[in-house]
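DATA SHEET
Item: assembly model
Revision: 1
Owner: S.N.
Input lines:
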Amino acid sequence: MQINGVDIKDTYAEAFGIKVSRLLVTAATKKLAKIAATEATGYATSVIGCPAEAGIDGYVPPTETPDGRPGYNIMICNSSKKQLDHELLERVGMGILTAATTAVFNALEDEDEKLKIGFKLKFFGDGYEKELEIDNRTIYSIPIMSGDFLVESELGIKDGVAGGNFFILANSQMEALIAAEAAVDAIHAVPGTITPFPGGVVASGSKVGCNNYNFLNASTNEKMCVTLKEEVVETEIRDDVHGIYEIVIDGVNEEQIRKAMSEGIKAACTISGVREISAGNYGGSLGAYKINLRDLF
Amino acid sequence: MQINGVDIKDTYAEAFGIKVSRLLVTAATKKLAKIAATEATGYATSVIGCPAEAGIDGYVPPTETPDGRPGYNIMICNSSKKQLDHELLERVGMGILTAATTAVFNALEDEDEKLKIGFKLKFFGDGYEKELEIDNRTIYSIPIMSGDFLVESELGIKDGVAGGNFFILANSQMEALIAAEAAVDAIHAVPGTITPFPGGVVASGSKVGCNNYNFLNASTNEKMCVTLKEEVVETEIRDDVHGIYEIVIDGVNEEQIRKAMSEGIKAACTISGVREISAGNYGGSLGAYKINLRDLF
Amino acid sequence: MQINGVDIKDTYAEAFGIKVSRLLVTAATKKLAKIAATEATGYATSVIGCPAEAGIDGYVPPTETPDGRPGYNIMICNSSKKQLDHELLERVGMGILTAATTAVFNALEDEDEKLKIGFKLKFFGDGYEKELEIDNRTIYSIPIMSGDFLVESELGIKDGVAGGNFFILANSQMEALIAAEAAVDAIHAVPGTITPFPGGVVASGSKVGCNNYNFLNASTNEKMCVTLKEEVVETEIRDDVHGIYEIVIDGVNEEQIRKAMSEGIKAACTISGVREISAGNYGGSLGAYKINLRDLF
Amino acid sequence: MQINGVDIKDTYAEAFGIKVSRLLVTAATKKLAKIAATEATGYATSVIGCPAEAGIDGYVPPTETPDGRPGYNIMICNSSKKQLDHELLERVGMGILTAATTAVFNALEDEDEKLKIGFKLKFFGDGYEKELEIDNRTIYSIPIMSGDFLVESELGIKDGVAGGNFFILANSQMEALIAAEAAVDAIHAVPGTITPFPGGVVASGSKVGCNNYNFLNASTNEKMCVTLKEEVVETEIRDDVHGIYEIVIDGVNEEQIRKAMSEGIKAACTISGVREISAGNYGGSLGAYKINLRDLF
């Protein structure tokens, strides 16, 4: 199977269950909303080493938000509900409440349950906080030095999907990189999904475990390392490939992950030099979701 | 004392000791370096709730970096050396190693000691890593899917200063906000300092402790909350002030903190509507550094 | 009439007819498309002194473009058809053809007529150009050093509307400025409209003619200048206003101008310190369109 | 000769004399200064079809500007003094005076003569303008709706150099493109130079004249078009090159052009896949400056 001359490998992405939240951060201007959304979703590429996986889902114009101000939907994810509760509290409390002119609303539609994030944050108001109703939501207004911070009392979480992924294999590193950027641009148009790695792109896909150092749970995927092609006999990189980037996607459900993968792959295939699209899996033993690349089209 | 018609209050900023690191992140282009620097310094406004305090110190053009590529100096800070070691490992490993085309070099000049961050990260290479010497530094080259990630073996840390600060009090919230942005622009020109809050600006300065909820260590500073001015009898906000933002600065030493405060305050005072510059302190009992505002000029 | 406590003055914006074009600029990535769109729409705030009025209408994700790549709709306008033909040729030829990886498609839906822009640009190919059909459009492929530039043979133009406008009057300059930025953010969500001034905001609204220098056709609108309030007896600025910015909108038709004005005004009224929304008119003698502010809501 | 394994061709860039101006645009914040600088330098890639060549030279922090606010040095150029006078008047008047919170200062050090740009713009004040002295400069303060616009009475111009250039030839289009971006990043560190094309990069280098259409003065440089390699017998593209971008530099003098070329070429050579650096010339008959690539190092 080919798209625009690029081989779509007969393989699958192995994805995992994760708890996801989705919040709308609004502010006085688009720029101010972006600043808060960026701070709150930083240091969150993978739960392998970060305290959460997080990213910006998409921009919401003022014409479509509860308070008529521009905003960004962001997603914050963790396998553990308790950990997610902690991360939501701290990322909203330290990254958004502290940011100029912001407000936070729930943006998850079919949540499994709700966490009392706004309810807990209100105590920061030291008794001066107030309960409001906006857009049929219970909102706390917390007085801060610069004005009032508004936050919805409860934020929904649900069982979502992490680790949707595909590999972009190109003739050179820079072709793979531009293709990865194009893929991320396309995935941004799919609501309910994020690409949590820096700029949406993974430079360093890993394998489970480590052959030489038994104290490590994850290590470089040497069979896919372009600079080890000559050295590693079992390399899985074809002759005409010298650059590889991976895209990892978290989403509210499998359907949106599939849509994001499909749009991302099509976008990557518009870039000259891309030779093959593949995907990461671990024998199918770990993740609950197997997404065949060729079924996406 | 006045600057450009703005009252400089006769008070001091109370700052604290913190362990600081300073790294240079380079990449193929300025944009790619910014992406990595942003991810690695996210979720790091204050150690009150974040696992670190971190931010971008400044841009370094390719003409001045060890590898002739554009880069950003970033600072990552924590009171505990052990915690800082952990944060450096994870923020470099998860936020920079994973980012496209990056390399990491030590950028602290007079370190107290060195942490083996690159040395520990090299194990990700699963035996394929190599030791190089660049610019008289010991560097590890770790093969990753997209190419090779370079990281200096040891990164310096030293006793620096956190919590340098000043308040911008203006006639309105938006005047205080633009003045805060101007202050942050100016502070960016002072090397060895960061403003770790979102966009460099603090919307929600806090007090130690909480009057109404004894389970909280920090809560809103009601005496400085503009929307509580009428309600709180002990308000410290003068009549003509309706907007307040705070700037918090971490730095490699007190001298750079002082320079940053001085430049930041002068810049804030270029904005119309600013009435007073004040600062946050806690009676002088907690922090080792007392920086009198009026001594800065 | 008030919106969110802000007075909507009983006045009208006087708008004028202008010839408009609307093109889609696509590129390999969103960033590259933005670079080309920005260059092609620069130096184009007002035909009073610029060779065109131009701006970015909105972003179009790769999922919705003819070539599956990210793009921006831009609008280029001029009162004279001949001049517009010239500007389209030069702005596409010098600002987009010269930009990396771009393509240009017509994005005007109900054009009055078509100009042979792509047809004329193809001669740059010196005989090596080719005619293609993409998405039922006649496209020329012009070989350039970096690859092939694609441009639609004909670009539509139509009678549109220029000079839709409103004034934001606030207690201070910075409140008016943030409100103007919020208004521009909202107007970006209205397709078929641009705000051609720098950042979408006009700092220097003018009056027709000049009282003191008869060689000038336009000069400062002293009755609305905040720093002349005390000096100019006929000032039209109320006591509580010390900052004024104007928003100017060009659009494909009156309906979209009205929508943009409505959304922009509502957004401006979310910002604290805004006191009044007014509009610019010249006695109704010059422009064909009179848009009453109070009829918008 | 090779740099980092890249062949530096034994050829020269042919550059031309041009009149250059250099202005400092300051504003309340860095972001606002960037908006004005971008508008004023748009639609200005090449005087072949644009009314000027213009670009942003570099950022100037508030610590180093006459008014203590952040700013950008920009350059505006034209072969004709009369035309440059016109462009300065319109680009400052329509692109900077109209932008929020801006001021304009001369930033050319050893000018040949001075043009009365501020002096002419002051008439917009309709008699309310005032003359000030700031930093030993004669400045006009012109009241506009949002406040006062400050502009230096006279702006210097001098005989500078246009058309400094080099070609980046890489194995693929995307490698050449990233290398071009890296080159532009490096050139930004050389004061007194601009790269006037979109994003600093030229996608469509041209030849003088046209073989097939005698009504054209410039047309595609078919011998350097990668997609015509097989078709054009006289192609000058070596076998291993499939992507070419050009960098064009204008500067205040030949020395800065040479520095910019040198830094830009070194930066381009850090990117994998780059094979050769060449340059554009026209037999040496047209331009006064011949800059041998190999003499730069």
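QC remark: The mean pLDDT of chain C is 96.
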